[in-house]
């Protein structure tokens, strides 16, 4: 007899997670995660971003343990160097975008945010045009900006340019990000997650745009994702 406490197997029509409740006659309804689950899902998101470069470092070390030929040794060392740099950049970005980043009411230098954003996003396929002035902003606004960049990056999976422009000035400044690239598109469900029309699925991918909406609400703003010609814009206003 199957344990009634265990979740039923899922398939492509019934996404995993405790929040999905649907029947044949009505669309799925989703409730928001509580604080503990939100924290767990954000941690899963950070782990998802780090597992690839950390795994590559482990692979490189295993090659070195096998006493390789000189050319294989150099390849392994190069892999370890690049992967360690990537892991460090992603950690610094995640600390600022998802972490506490200082005490309540703290302010963050947009120059530091620019450095973290370039280190995390610019990878040879995607580049950033940063048109923001250098000033201190409340930390939630900076966290919102970095999360908007992640959302915008998802709209250009083949790479391209992310252009960040200010809306307003001073501590009440908000942001507009324009994503341009080959086959720029609106990712499925992200617009609904940002607008509140849809709650988050219980996975690390959906929690990020949902968290972006929470940050916007904390700043008294609304985030919108929309096509604009051949580009996609992400706007907080």
TrEMBL record:
The keyword Transcription does not apply. Residues 111-230 form the Histidine phosphotransferase ChpT C-terminal domain. Keywords: Transferase. The keyword Transferase applies. GO terms for molecular function: transferase activity. InterPro entries: ChpT_C (IPR018762), HATPase_C_sf (IPR036890). Residues 1-26 are annotated as: Disordered. It comes from the Bacteria. Signal peptide: none annotated. This is Histidine phosphotransferase. It comes from Bradyrhizobium zhanjiangense. The lineage of its organism: Bacteria, Pseudomonadati, Pseudomonadota, Alphaproteobacteria, Hyphomicrobiales.
